[in-house]
Structure formats: C-alpha cells, structure tokens
C-alpha cells in the first residue's frame, strides 16, 4: 500500500460521523486548525446550541505559531463569522484534551450551566480520541463529535502539510490504544487492519508524535 492509503485507513477509523442534534453547548477543543473554529461557528449559526465554548491555551503544535491562546484565536474566527460575543465562553488554561474537558466543565459550572447534551468539535482525525477522553472525564452526558467536513485528500494545507498530519495521526491512533491503560480514555475497538496500517507507517518513519509506552 502507498503511504496515503495507509494513512487513510487511520483517518477513516478516527472519524465517528455522529448525527448531530440540538444540544445545550458546543464545546470546541483547541488545536492548530482554525477551520475547526469556523465549523463550530457554523454549527452555532445553524441553531444547534446556545453556547459556544472554546478551550485551549497553547500546545505542542501551536506554541510559537499562534500569537494568542487557541481559545482566543478560535473565538476571533467565530465572531468574524457572526457569532455574538455574548454566546462565547473561553477557557484558555488547558494544554491537553483532558484539561480541555475538565476546565470547560468548571467554566460552565461557574455560570450555573450543566449541559446534558454536548456537541464536541475537533479536527477530523481527533474525533475518536476526543470522544474516548470525554467519556472518561465527564460521565453521564450525551456527546456527539463533529469536525470540518474534509477528507484526508483535501485536508492538508500549506500551514498543515501532509507530512505533519500523518505524523500526528499516527500519534493519535497510538494514544487511542495505550491511553485507556493509563486512565486517560475509555477503551475503543481497533480493527486489526488499523493497527497493521499504524505499524507500517511507524516502520516508514512516521514516529515524531509517538508517546513512550513505559
């Protein structure tokens, strides 16, 4: 298989393609892709929730790239698309997915908001990892994942080149497999085909975003 074919197997596995329903909150997990913020704004403007929460300080992929926190950068994108500032909440301390969820829950609780149904927005290849983390950290909620409607082929940009995307994708699939044992996520089924594709990509050198399993 080509590298692109192997990567697409991982990409398709990480997508969940949940059907969205009207919700209490749209929670946007910070990242290096401003298209995530634009997609979340579109969901708000469609009337799918009354609140838009942006979460994220700076992480490994945005440090030195964004001039402000991920939450601030995302909020600016949303307001430019027409989302009123009064509908936006910002959590700008978190630097990982677990903290995104924990600190956003605290932010909402401080405003007396206890959402029962949430739409959680991330990059397409982060959907499964985001879902597995949310279901571990915030129990008893109806969670639907969403992401910009982009395919593996159309996702890369000059700022987000394919080489980087495949490396991060390989790292995220590894986290789906090993993080449950560390208490960070709920377990997710992983077909043999997916893990075989992962192993081949690692063998081809796509290992820059792996975590130590020790």
Task: Describe this entry's structure for a reader.
It is a single chain. The protein is globular and about 50 Å long. By secondary structure, the protein is an alpha/beta fold. The chain has helices at 3-14, 34-45, 70-80, 97-110, 127-137, 162-182, 192-203; strands spanning 25-29, 52-55, 88-91, 117-121, 142-146. 43% of the residues lie in helices and 11% in strands. A five-stranded parallel sheet has the order 3-2-1-4-5, sandwiched between helices. It has two domains: 3-11 and 153-203, no CATH class; 16-146, Rossmann fold, CATH 3.40.50.620. The two termini are 30 Å apart.
Brief synopsis:
The relative contact order is 0.18.
Mean pLDDT: 94
Shape: globular
The CATH superfamily name of the largest domain is HUPs
Provide the β-strand percentage band: 5-15%
Order of helices and strands: HEHEHEHEHEHH
CATH architecture of the largest domain: 3-Layer(aba) Sandwich
- Give the helix tally: 7
Strand order in space, largest sheet: 3-2-1-4-5
Distance between the termini: 30 Å
Please bin the fraction of helical residues. Answer: 40-55%
Please, how many domains? 2
Looking at CATH, which topology of the largest domain would you report?
Answer: Rossmann fold
Text of the CATH class of the largest domain: Alpha Beta
């Amino acid at each position: 298989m080509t590298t692109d074919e192997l990567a697409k197997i991982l990409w398709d596995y990480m997508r969940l393609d949940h059907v969205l329903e009207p919700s209490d909150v749209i929670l946007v997990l910070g990242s290096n892709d401003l298209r995530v913020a634009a997609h979340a704004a579109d969901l708000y403007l469609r009337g799918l929730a009354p609140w838009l929460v942006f979460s994220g300080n700076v992480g490994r992929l945005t440090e030195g790239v964004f001039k402000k926190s991920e939450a601030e950068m995302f909020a600016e994108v949303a307001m430019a698309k027409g989302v009123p500032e009064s509908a936006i909440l910002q959590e700008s301390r978190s630097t990982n997915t677990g903290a995104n969820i924990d600190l956003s829950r605290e932010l909402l609780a401080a405003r007396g908001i206890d959402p029962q149904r949430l739409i959680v927005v991330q990059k397409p290849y982060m959907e499964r990892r985001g879902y597995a983390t949310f279901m571990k950290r915030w129990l008893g909620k109806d969670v639907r994942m969403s992401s910009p409607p982009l395919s593996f082929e159309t996702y890369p940009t000059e700022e987000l080149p394919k080489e980087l995307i495949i490396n991060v994708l390989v790292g995220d699939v590894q986290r789906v497999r090993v993080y449950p044992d560390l208490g960070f996520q709920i377990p997710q089924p992983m077909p043999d085909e997916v893990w075989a594709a992962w192993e081949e990509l690692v063998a081809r050198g796509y290992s820059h975003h792996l975590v130590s399993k020790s």
